[in-house]
Design goal:
Blueprint lengths: L19 E13 L2 E12 L6 E2 L10 E2 L7 E14 L2 E11 L6 E11 L2
Antiparallel strand pairs: 1-2, 2-5, 3-4, 5-6, 6-7
């Protein structure tokens, strides 16, 4: 249900802009009982990139969005990480993710350190 107080009248189906198929190979291993490593490498294939302009239809006041005219349909992705189990309810980990972007001529590398506690 849409919130009428925000003036929203119709949902915009963005899923058609970002449809893609992906596949990857994932590996993981224990180095020690409390230390593990993991990684993956794969590709994403844009299945619905059709030109450089997307427009909303049926919604008054919205204009077309201009995207990169030579969108990259096949893009590489990879991730690596390691974790250390402090005990059976606590873990710290470090992860890195590499992505080739579809609509920008840039590649991104993201890293994240996490601490997880369970009950």
């Amino acid at each position: 249900m849409l919130d009428k107080s925000l003036g929203a009248k119709r949902r915009i189906p963005l899923f058609t802009v970002f449809d893609c198929a992906d596949g990857s190979v994932k590996l993981s291993a224990y180095l020690l009982p409390e230390v593990g490593v993991f990684g993956s490498v794969g590709a994403k294939l844009g299945t619905n990139n059709q030109g450089n302009n997307y427009s909303a239809t049926g919604v008054t006041g919205l204009t077309a969005i201009a995207l990169n005219p030579d969108a990259k349909r096949l893009r590489g992705v990879a991730s690596v990480g390691t974790y250390y189990d402090l005990d059976k309810t606590q873990r710290i980990s470090l992860n890195a993710v590499y992505r080739e972007e579809a609509f920008q001529k840039v590649n991104t590398l993201s890293t994240m350190a996490t601490y997880t506690a369970g009950f």
